[in-house]
Specification:
- The chain is of the alpha/beta class.
- About 45% of the residues lie in helices and about 10% in strands.
- It has helices spanning about 15-30, 40-55, 75-90, 95-100, 105-110, 115-130, 140-150, 160-170, 175-180, 200-205, 220-230, 245-260; strands spanning about 35, 55-60, 65-70, 135, 155, 155, 180-185, 215-220, 235.
- The strands form 3 sheets. Strands 1-9-8-2-5 form a 5-stranded parallel sheet, with helices on both faces. It has a two-stranded antiparallel ribbon with strand order 3-4.
- Helix 11 (about 220-230) links the parallel strand 8 and strand 9 (about 235).
- Helix 3 packs antiparallel against helix 6 and helix 7 (about 140-150) runs parallel beside helix 12 (about 245-260).
- The radius of gyration is 22 Å and the shape is globular.
Length: about 280
Amino acid sequence: MNERSGAAPDRAGGPAARARRFALANDLRAAETRPVTSAYHEPSLLRLRARLARAKCRLPDFDGPVCHLFRGYPAGEIAQTVRDRLAERGSPVTDPALLASTDPLAILRSPRGGLAAELQQTLAEAEETAVRSAEPTPPADVFIRAAAGSGRRLAVTRNNAPAAVRACLREHDLDDCFGGRIHGRSAVDAALLKPHPDCLLRAVDGLAVRPSECLMIGDPAGDAAAATAARCPSSATPAAPTGWRGRERWTRTRWSSACGTWSPRSKAVEPPGRRPGPG
């Protein structure tokens, strides 16, 4: 008997226990599309583990989680190339924000009428040039191969041109891990760029799974918003810190948490010659 109330203690199969399990199940379903923003925040870690148990597929963003696409050809230089092309074609950029922007996608999103297709081509060519000097994000390749080797399917969901993504994956021997499942920028309509869920929905359709069976790996802004719109769970982390060691640790946490291959309390998969970061 309970000393305070005189009531019999609740048993594992009792009404109160069943009610608690029912409430927990409802909470997990309600939280299914919320982004997880920290692998070290215990409630978020519990939700992430629940998602990992359900997720059959990983849908990573590309620039950042997989590689540093613009390491040798900065996005700001590409944005200037796009502005120069518009000026040559008699449609110069006049918006002060776009003139100062280092994001070529921001310019691509601006209405350009009959020049939209030419802008898409200009940007795609610049991204393919950037691939030549792109570097894999250490140690993402280890986690990508581990996730693929465990039977989980991966598909890139990114605002870059698909040809550039394919070329980069081939260059670093990661293309087999994705099996050609590259869902990049639509060449038809710039309005379909993330945070629109278009590329995620294409990935889900191509994988022939439900959105709830996938996990989107990306940033807490556009990627998380796209995942929520697609009703797909997501693992989102803050922007990468500056400095090589800080970026490596950030990437390790991001990929390992999302792929379930490493955690601050586990050494299931670890790049050769390195130790996991402190928990």
